[in-house]
């Protein structure tokens, strides 16, 4: 029961304490033995029918990834994180984007602030924030240890989509004893505050 399980997780539980997580898994086992690999589209539900996760393979085809200018522009933003590396491929890093953050704490207008920071395209870009989500994160070539997104409310879903040229990636959800094939173009949505999750390092970009 995901509702009962969520009440056992404190608001400050980041999912990093392995000993605590083992005890929680013993108290609330997922209902099957061992870790199972999910490699086809799936909906993960609990005993009462509540959806915990959705999983889609090939949500973004290779053609869509190659020809989508928004995807290319998003990966270009990671140039901010370059540290003098000569590596070929996307720069490792993570950025969080939200139009409201830009204005918080500033009395001057958006245009003035953008120009003062030498970001001349920012004012126009913010006019076209066509997303139902108030925040967007871009993570590039980063290994993510198992964790919970403890700042979310329990009912919120993380929605992740992958792009790039890599292979053999897996997203793990140890609290469910599941691993998902995390190929380029897949999409997965899950209760990030409740479900512990992580991605190991892979070869590729």
3D structure, described in words:
- With 205 residues, this protein is an alpha+beta fold.
- It has 7 helices and 11 strands.
- The chain has helices spanning 2-7, 18-27, 62-67, 69-76, 99-103, 110-116, 122-126; strands at residues 36-38, 42-45, 51-56, 93-97, 136-140, 144-147, 158-161, 170-173, 178-181, 187-190, 197-199.
- Strands 1-9-8-11-6 form a 5-stranded mixed sheet, with no helix packed on it.
- The longest helix is centred in the N-terminal third of the chain and has 10 residues, at 18-27.
- It is globular, with a radius of gyration of 19 Å.
- Residues 80-88 have low confidence and may be disordered.
Provide a concise account of the structure shown:
By secondary structure, the chain is of the alpha+beta class. It is built from 7 helices and 11 strands.
The termini sit apart by 38 Å
- Using only CA atoms, what is the Rg? 19 Å
Q: Order of helices and strands, N to C? A: HHEEEHHEHHHEEEEEEE
Order of strands, widest sheet: 1-9-8-11-6
Mean pLDDT: 78
Structural class: alpha+beta
Major sheet description: 5 strands, mixed
Give the helix tally.
Answer: 7
Taken as a percent bin, the fraction of beta residues is 15-25%
User: How many E strands?
Assistant: 11
Principal-axes shape call = globular
Q: What is the helix fraction of residues, given as a range?
A: 10-25%
- Low-confidence stretches are 80-88
């Amino acid at each position: 029961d995901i509702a009962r399980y969520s009440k056992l997780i404190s608001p400050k539980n980041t999912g990093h304490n392995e000993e605590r997580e083992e005890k929680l898994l013993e108290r609330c086992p997922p209902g099957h033995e061992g870790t199972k690999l999910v490699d086809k589209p799936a909906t993960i539900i609990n005993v009462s029918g509540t959806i915990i996760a959705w999983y889609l393979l090939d949500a973004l085809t290779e053609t869509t990834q190659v020809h989508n200018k928004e995807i290319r522009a998003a990966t270009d933003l990671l140039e901010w994180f370059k540290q003098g590396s000569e590596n070929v491929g996307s720069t490792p890093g993570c950025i969080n984007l939200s139009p409201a953050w830009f204005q918080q704490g500033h009395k001057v207008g958006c245009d003035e602030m953008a120009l003062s920071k030498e970001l001349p395209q920012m004012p126009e870009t913010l006019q076209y924030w066509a997303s139902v989500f108030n925040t967007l994160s871009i993570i590039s070539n980063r290994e993510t240890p198992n964790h919970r997104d403890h700042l979310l409310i329990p009912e919120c879903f993380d929605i992740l989509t992958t792009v790039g040229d890599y292979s053999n990636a897996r997203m793990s959800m140890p609290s469910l004893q599941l691993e998902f094939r995390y190929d380029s173009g897949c999409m997965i949505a899950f209760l990030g505050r409740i479900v512990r999750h992580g991605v190991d390092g892979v070869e590729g970009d």
